[in-house]
Specification:
Pdz3 Domain; 8-stranded mixed β-sheet; 25 strands; Double Stranded RNA Binding Domain; 9 helices
Length: about 475
């Protein structure tokens, strides 16, 4: 059996990585970075990730929003190290943030902080910690696209671009260019731009190539365990395997070469000036249609418009989760104790309250330490590797190379393993809606609770939460 690097899988890591020194931890639900890009938010915070189901998402904060002010104070008057304190003011549960984006010069957004006890761990965190129960629904992956992105060296704010049009279509390639232009138009409209064929702010030009490689000498035989290439396909909403060589493979190893380029040409101030350009250069093992490549990759290319972070090779992460949400937060120091319950959650509606002791979830005992839960999880992973489908193998974002979906023919064996007490699988309820965890198909979860001297059986009908975050690392 292959040796497994369990350091990235153990529940204990998720349990212990908690900030210390305060009674509670508050979050708004987004992260930012200080922009060094002269064309978008220079020296200001730019939002680079928004957490699903967070206060920021509910308030309408979007990736690439530029933060212009916090509680009425302009960012220009705030030192960089003061920004976190102003975003999380002590004694105030709300903050007003002024943001600018491609559709709004300045929009003020009220965000209410979400606070939890510092030793609370949520079901969202547990779903990531225990994702080996259900890689089909919960996984975090990364891939690198061989894109080269350049921008004008002139001082120009991309916020000035509001409208666009397309260069004339080449008749010999009408079908292909119609597909390309259709994808570009859809993505840019979603970003807030509008089509204007009379007086556009910029003209969009595409170019492309697909040829057999005249310098092809064959694949590198040394790479015995060459990994498959995966990318995220927005049209199918999933990761797909593609016949692409790694970005670091030698060009002579590629049987075919593909190129797709998009160029934004100024029509506003200096007509003809190239404002933004992205070129994809792929090395392929077998033929691939340019139309299909455009459908899949243009949305990925535009992840760097208007905010460009990487000139070459774009690293993209995909965090996908579907898990059972009851609304319970557990005490990381005593996992059987309910530390908090969301007021509008299924668990609260069923009668679960902070301080309750969960003796069992289903038939699975909860009176184990974090180390014991982690040890059981490790044993489960090791013992059930034979039930996985090697055709689905991939490497996750933590570098674990043997991630695989369950073999559909072995679902009953997976179910039997999850029922074994030695594996301490109480938190498998997070995936009770799946056929390999619960073949009965009834997603109701039974919690056996102790409240003081009283004991009760509580049936919770969880909500299946689905999250998808695609971002640039």
């Amino acid at each position: 059996m292959r040796k497994i690097n369990l350091s990235v899988l153990l529940f204990l890591i998720a349990v212990l990585s908690v900030a210390q020194g305060r009674n509670s931890i508050c979050r708004l639900g987004f992260t930012y970075e200080i922009s060094g890009n002269p064309h978008w938010g220079l020296n200001k915070p730019v939002v680079n990730r928004v957490t699903p189901y967070s206060p920021a998402e509910s308030a309408g904060i979007k990736v690439d929003d530029i933060i212009e002010e916090i509680d009425g104070i302009p960012i220009a008057q705030i030192a960089v190290d003061e920004i976190p304190m102003l975003l999380n003011p002590s004694g105030n549960n709300e903050v007003v943030i002024g943001v600018r984006n491609m559709t709004s010069p300045l929009k003020k957004v009220l965000i209410s902080k979400q606070c939890k006890p510092q030793n609370a761990i949520s079901e969202d965190q547990l779903a990531s910690a225990y994702n080996m129960y259900s890689l089909e629904t919960t996984t975090e992956r990364e891939f690198i696209c061989p894109f080269t992105t350049t921008t004008t060296e002139d001082a120009f704010d991309f916020d000035q671009i509001k409208t666009f049009s397309f260069a004339p279509i080449e008749e010999s390639n009408r079908n292909l260019e119609t597909v390309i232009n259709g994808v570009v138009e859809k993505v840019l409209i979603e970003k807030g731009l509008k089509v204007d064929n009379d007086q556009p702010d910029m003209l969009i030009e595409s170019y492309y190539m697909f040829n057999a490689n005249p310098n092809y000498v064959g694949e590198n035989k040394i790479l015995v365990d060459k990994e498959a290439s995966f990318r995220y396909d927005f049209t199918q909403n999933k990761m797909v395997k593609l016949p692409f060589l790694s970005y670091f493979a030698a060009e002579a190893e590629a049987a075919y070469l593909l190129q797709l380029g998009l160029r934004f040409i100024d029509q506003r101030e200096l007509p003809g000036r190239v404002l933004w350009e992205c070129i994809a250069n792929e090395k392929l093992e077998e033929p691939f249609r340019l139309e299909e490549y455009a459908l899949l990759h243009i949305p990925l290319m535009f992840m760097q418009y208007p905010y460009v972070k990487y000139g070459q090779y774009l690293p993209i992460s995909v965090n996908k989760k579907s898990y059972n949400y009851t609304g319970i937060s557990y005490n990381i120091d005593r996992l059987e104790q309910v530390l908090d319950v969301d007021r509008s959650s299924p668990a609260y509606a069923a009668g679960i309250r902070p301080g309750d002791i969960i003796e069992r979830i289903g038939s699975n005992a909860m009176n184990h330490s974090a180390e014991a839960f982690s040890d059981g999880y490790k044993k489960f992973i090791e013992k059930t590797m034979i039930y996985r489908d090697p055709e689905t193998i991939y490497t996750d974002i933590n570098g674990f190379r043997y991630c695989m979906y369950w073999d559909t023919n072995k679902y009953p064996l997976v179910t039997t393993a999850i029922e074994k007490s030695e594996f301490r699988t109480a938190f498998s309820y997070l995936y009770y809606f799946t056929p390999y965890v619960n073949p009965a198909g009834n997603n109701a979860c039974t919690f056996h609770i102790a409240r003081g001297k009283n004991k009760m059986e509580v049936i919770i009908r969880p909500t299946i939460r689905t999250e998808l975050t695609i971002g640039i690392n």
